[in-house]
Amino acid sequence: MAESMDILEQLSVTFKKFAVHGDHKATGKELNGKNWAKLCKDCNIADGKTTTSTDVDIVFTKVKAKSSRVITYEEFKKALEELAPRRFKGQSKEEALQSIYRLVANKEPANIGVTKVLKAAAVDRLTDSSRFTGSHKERFDSSGRGRGREGREELVENTGYVGAYRNAGTYEEKMKDK
């Protein structure tokens, strides 16, 4: 009996860890469908053979309240009871439930392999402003820092006696052309 209590405490810890995963506002009392699917995948409940991600989604929909988008800890245990006979077909209902509890107990969300680190050499080569040519070259100063709007467009000075007069000091050049 003490061992089963220990497993239930471990289940509770796992439930809370997955409930708050990816959501800084989560309280840890409710598990959404996305985190339920992640729990099943990370704990090897959804193995792709006996239990698929579709089975996981169906069980989630079955145990949650009709208008709800999340499941509570009690509904979580019901969902595990639903999945146990599917995942462990050769075992009795009680043995299957204990096996699925052992899969889930004391696990936490896996973050390894979620985002890949970019290859630094390729990024360095593509962001090296000294290799840029043409109009792209004008967008960076000699140190490689971006020049912002100044580098993207030819800025016009709004100086002069008249408000709409642009490019102060160019009047003589305009008059020569005529």
TrEMBL record:
Localization per record: Cytoplasm, Cytoskeleton
Biased composition (Basic and acidic residues): 135-155
Protein's UniProt keywords contain Membrane: no
BP GO terms, sorted: microtubule bundle formation; microtubule polymerization; positive regulation of protein polymerization
The keyword Cytoplasm is annotated on this UniProt entry: yes
Major site of localization recorded for this protein: cytoplasm
Region described as Disordered: 133-157
One GO cellular component term: microtubule
Record protein name field: Tubulin polymerization-promoting protein family member 3
Gene: TPPP3
